[in-house]
Write a structure and sequence with these properties.
It contains 9 helices and 57 strands. By secondary structure, it is mainly beta. A hairpin with a 3-residue loop joins strand 42 and strand 43.
Length: about 1000
């Protein structure tokens, strides 16, 4: 009984105690309400994380930036953080229950971090080599159908030439000059630390009657909205860890990821119009004929004066192009998982009728952490599908510009817009054009080409990336990555009956190619970071990688006879079909590598790297693998020297590196092949076991300075590279039973200077002006070839246009050779008795197609909610050749030929063979000899210097407080709006080919274009 009473009293005693404790606890706990806003715009910041220091309490802001969180009297310090803003700590006063927190946007600090080789992030000041970053916003100012074009004029040391292939065309990107005579000079593209497939669908003619087609570009299909930033690793030291693929430098693309604590949806839309610029100049005074007389059978315009009609035939044919790009991105996540998804759609129309592009981009990226954040797993899938109709061709075959430009000047092309007429005897349509007869011709009705010689390609690309990183200990983690990059393309050309030979056959012909290129990549890397003591720190990595490439497919041509039944474009409809299997091109690269960075007291840095590659292309040689190292030293002077206070960074750096490059596939043991109809093709190139890999030796010296709170930044670099063991094919002795030998020879040197200066010229609350200037100087020189190789031709002499691109000792990569006039001892042009000038049969050097120096000037102004930016850039001191102009002159359609006739002839400094002076020659006699298909090519060399307004944007940020939108911006944009200076008759930046040959040569290329339009960006 007493025990029960005791228990009852005990319970009754505990209850008041609990109630008292609860009351006391309630008295010590407060609910805090607050708002987080942008310090500058006062816009709410959703998704910010709020933590109570010393506790596990945490909260986050809603779409209006509001939050609630409980604090007690002992823990009243809040930490507020979110992506893109500086962390902030707030101490609450006694009894304070509401708070407004203003966060400052993150700005670039002295200890800025950059992405380097293999996707490794490092402090900028610790780098011992030159690198430059471009952020995603800069790349998206003015949309392009190829991301590479958006780098033009913005990076020192980079020379970019866009192809003449219209929307989606590839770009030629060269870092620090051309290095390889027979190999690839394009940069390596890397996405999130993993190399993507640089072996695009090969540019090749559809058949012996077809024109070249653009093989595509590794990054042309990437959605610019997915790009966080781009790092350009220019030198061998910066790119050494990527091995032979990076011999020409690396463009490293870091894509966007999901953001912790912030869920955002971004929509961007761009609408641009496109117009042809830099068109040829035509005469309208003289019509069809020759000798000053009208002739309806003539193909040229050397006839009598016209009736005064001035037909705008070029304007009648070209159309206004367009580019509509829409992109939607979703980003979100928490501390453990982040998700990023994007979709983009591009619809583009070229200035050429029926030249249309449609592209869809899908991207999904996931990242997650496990096991107390020790394991980080990331994966991404990127799928791109593209359809491209009637990509323009340069040159003679299937090129509508030939008929368009050479049409006699008294004919109205509108009369031929109805491009076909019905042939009742054949029960099909024939081509309607003035030149068609029984003779062969490559000149056709332009509308017939785009409608009755159409091409179509369907390209699909799948990129899969996965990685797992495990933090074994604070000083070491292990990372495994793998990727699959597969591109497949189906391409065909339909050539209708009515197309004249040599382009077509009586019933038409059909070409079809189906190609798949696959790259598989994997690596395993251990990353280490040691703090030996307060002053010494060592970071480094060791790893191994494997890359495997495979090309396979089928090719079909309807053969020399063509289709059996007219205009039935199926593989089975052929009298003499020529099916074949594309060579199953397979190659593999296996590698081990290591690097270390030694830091002493955060002011002295030593970089060491080493890599060894085993390349399948070196099989059957004595050099099955190759090793190359690099070493770099960086010294931060301001940390140890008593420099003025306004100097924030003073750094000098130097590096030396060797980068190897393997041989072309199947070079070291060539075998006989079996082609169509089991025809055996014998190998005619000798196998030599002594072939070695190409190697580039690179020396780099540089300095970086930052002053006045980092408002002035200067980066200057000197470099010299020598690429040795060049791969050449030379003629073999007849006794060897081979036609060619493959050898290693040569030394191509590039030497230059790069400089980047950026200034925050004005910086206050309402107005800012940032300006930057980048400068590039590069001089290429061929130091030596080989005793067996006196010269090496990229394009052989005797080709159309009396043009050749050749290597000779003392010359440079890109030298242009051609024919000049025969001159007497006084330098006068020797003229025959009939009044025509004599042309020398020997080829002489006429110029070089690579700019010696480049300059880019980028400016951004911000005034309250308005912004203005423009980019002016120029390329200087080089030459280009226009064989288009030679044909226009030879056919008498150019303005210069009309002016010459109106002025009574061409004024020259000439003489006959007996020394009689000649000062005037009949215009037709002169241009028929010096122009045309075999011109005096020295007459068609032009200064390639060009300065242009590359980009212009003007925008407005809307005030959207308490709105559905977080950000809303609209911009008026333009690209290539006008030339400040241009001396050539075409835009020298446009390239016929992204390969080594045909650089700086215009053979009926598509003209450059001017783009202008509007962009809209909305975040909600």
């Amino acid at each position: 009984m007493n025990n029960k009473l005791y228990s009852t009293l005990r319970v009754l005693g505990i209850v008041p105690t609990m109630l008292f404790s609860s009351s006391l606890l309630h008295a010590q706990t407060n609910q805090i309400k607050g708002t987080v806003v942008d310090a500058k715009t006062k816009a709410p910041i959703p998704g910010a994380t709020i933590k109570v220091l010393g506790t596990s309490n945490a909260s986050s802001t809603d779409v209006k930036g509001a939050f609630q969180i409980n604090v007690d009297d002992k823990n009243r310090i809040l930490n507020i953080s979110t992506v893109g803003y500086e962390n902030k700590t707030v101490t609450l006063g006694p009894g304070e229950t509401t708070v407004t927190v203003s966060l400052e946007e993150q700005t670039q600090q002295l200890e800025s971090v950059v992405v380097t080789a293999l996707g490794i992030s490092r402090a900028q000041k610790s780098l011992t080599y030159s690198t430059q970053q471009v952020n995603g916003d800069e790349l998206n100012k003015v949309k392009s159908t190829n991301l590479a074009n958006n780098l033009n004029g913005k990076v020192a040391g980079v020379n970019i030439a866009s192809s003449s292939s219209g929307p989606g065309g590839s770009a030629k990107v060269i870092l620090r000059g051309n290095k390889s005579a027979s190999g690839n000079n394009q940069v390596l593209y890397v996405v999130d630390g993993v190399p993507i497939n640089n072996q695009t669908v090969a540019s090749q003619p559809g058949n012996i009657y077809g024109g070249d087609r653009d093989g595509g570009d590794p990054i042309a299909l990437i959605n610019p909205e997915d790009v966080e930033n781009i790092s350009v690793l220019k030198g061998a030291s910066a790119a050494a860890l990527y091995g032979s693929q990076a011999a020409n430098g690396v463009i490293l693309i870091t894509t966007k990821s999901g953001k912790q604590g912030r869920t955002t949806v971004n929509f961007s839309s761009s609408a641009q119009l496109e117009q042809a610029v830099s068109l040829p100049e035509f005469q309208s005074q003289y019509g069809r004929g020759s000798g000053g007389k009208s002739n309806t059978t003539s193909l040229s315009s050397w006839g009598d004066k016209t009736n005064g009609a001035n037909y705008d035939n070029v304007g009648e044919f070209f159309r206004t192009g367009s580019n509509f790009t829409n992109s939607l991105t979703l980003s979100g996540g928490n501390e453990k998982n982040q998700t990023y998804f994007s979709y983009a759609n591009t619809l583009a129309k070229g200035i050429l009728p029926e030249n249309d592009l449609m592209r869809h981009n899908f991207n999904l990226k996931e990242s997650a952490k496990f096991f107390d954040d020790k394991l980080t797993v990331e994966g991404s899938a990127n799928y791109i599908t593209q359809k491209l109709d009637n990509a323009p061709s340069s040159g003679f075959y299937f090129n509508p510009l030939i008929g368009l430009y050479l049409l006699p000047r008294n004919l109205d092309i509108a009369d031929y817009k109805q491009f076909e007429t019905f042939n009742s005897s054949r029960n099909l349509y024939d081509q309607n054009w003035y030149t068609l007869s029984d003779v062969e011709t490559t000149q056709q009705n332009p509308w017939w080409i785009v409608n009755r010689n159409p091409t179509r390609s369907t390209r699909n690309r799948l990129l899969l990336n996965g990685s797992a990183k495990y933090q074994i200990a604070p000083w070491i983690n292990v990372q495994a990555r793998g990727s699959l990059d597969r591109t497949s393309e189906v391409w065909d050309r339909k050539v209708y009956a009515g197309t004249p030979t040599p382009l077509g056959r009586p019933n038409g012909n059909y070409d079809y190619t189906n190609t798949t290129i696959t790259q598989q990549y994997g690596d395993l890397i251990a990353n280490m970071n040691f703090h030996i003591n307060d002053k010494f720190q060592i970071t480094g990595l060791v790893g191994t990688s494997i890359t495997d490439w495979k090309t396979e497919g089928v090719n079909y041509s309807s053969g020399t006879v063509g289709l059996e039944y007219p205009n039935q474009f199926i593989i089975q409809n052929s009298t003499t079909p020529a099916p074949s299997t594309l060579s199953n091109n397979r190659r593999q690269l296996q590698s081990i590598f290591a690097s270390t960075n030694l830091s002493y007291d955060q002011w002295l840095y030593l970089d060491l790297t080493a890599r060894n590659d085993w390349a399948s292309t070196l099989a059957f040689t004595d050099s099955k693998s190759f090793f190359y190292p690099s070493v770099g030293l960086g010294i931060v002077l301001n940390d140890k020297l008593q420099l003025p206070e306004f100097i924030n960074l003073a750094k000098i750096r130097g590096s030396y590196a060797i980068v190897g490059n393997d041989l072309p596939p199947y070079t070291t043991l060539l075998t006989n092949t079996v082609g169509s109809y089991s025809v055996l093709t014998l190998n005619d190139i000798a196998f030599l076991r002594t072939l070695k890999p190409e190697k580039t030796h690179s020396l780099e010296l540089g300095t970086e300075w930052r002053m006045w709170n980092n408002r002035l930044n200067v980066d200057v670099t000197y470099y010299k590279t020598n690429t040795k063991n060049q791969f050449f094919k030379i003629a073999a002795n007849q006794a060897s039973l081979y036609n060619q030998f493959a050898i290693n020879a040569g030394d191509i040197q590039n030497q230059g200077v790069e400089a980047l200066v950026s200034v925050d010229a004005i910086k206050n609350d309402s107005f800012t002006w940032n300006t930057s200037l980048n400068f590039t100087y590069n001089k290429n020189k061929i130091i030596k070839l080989d005793d067996r190789v006196t010269e090496f031709a990229l394009t052989g002499a005797g080709n159309f246009g009396n043009y050749a691109s050749k290597f000779q000792v003392g010359g440079s990569f890109g030298d242009i050779y051609g024919k000049d006039f025969v001159r007497d001892v006084q330098g006068r042009i020797v003229v025959d008795g009939d009044g025509t000038p004599q042309i020398n049969s020997d080829y002489v050097k006429l110029g070089n197609s690579n700019p010696i120096w480049q300059l880019g000037w980028n400016n951004t102004f911000n005034y309250k909610n308005f912004s203005l930016s423009f980019l002016i850039d120029g390329k200087f001191d080089y030459q280009v050749m226009s064989l288009t102009q030679a044909l226009l002159d030879g056919n008498g359609v150019s303005k210069v030929t009309g002016d010459a006739r109106a002025n009574g002839g061409v004024t020259i400094n000439g003489a006959t063979s007996n020394g009689t002076p000649v000062t005037n020659i009949d215009a037709e006699s002169w241009y028929s000899k010096t122009g045309g298909i075999s011109p005096a090519s020295s007459q068609y060399i032009y200064d390639g210097t060009v300065v242009r307004l590359r980009e212009l944007t003007f925008g407005y940020n809307f005030n959207i407080k308490d709105s559905f939108f977080k950000k809303l911006r609209i911009n008026a944009v333009g690209r290539n709006l006008f030339y400040i200076s241009k001396k050539a008759p075409f835009d020298p930046e446009v390239a016929m080919s992204t390969g080594n040959s045909l650089s700086g040569i215009d053979i009926f290329m598509m003209p450059a274009t001017r783009n202008y339009g509007l962009t809209l960006n909305a975040t909600f």
